[in-house]
Design brief:
single chain, 2 domains, globular, mainly alpha, Helicase, Ruva Protein, domain 3
Length: 138
Amino acid sequence: MFPIQLPPLRDRRDDIPLLAWAFAQKFAQKMGRSLHPLTAEGVARLKAYRWPGNVRELENVMERAVITARDGRLDLELALPESTHAAASGLPVLPDLPSTFRTAQEMEVLERGNLILALEGGPTGASRERMEPLSASE
């Protein structure tokens, strides 16, 4: 075996649509399904995600998208991790930044997004929790 050094997927955003479509077609063929091409919104959503699991994670996401596809349309809403739903909901998304520091403005954007996600976090979100008085034993 020979080691090959490749930059992470998050640094090769232009490769994401090509890889995603190749994975989608592979799984669609395996499952005997036909697919519509990726939409511009779908491509934008895939590119917005940071891909900590790299290409293997993209492959898994596309497999889930094919499994949950309806009428040949990939369902990235269900396939992608929840962090991408914030980007799709209009919350500001920071570009890839160096890991050394963030500006005060970038930190404000992160904090605002984090607070909104905490408030809207599904059934366990802060805005959905019942406010009950603490008992003396708590």
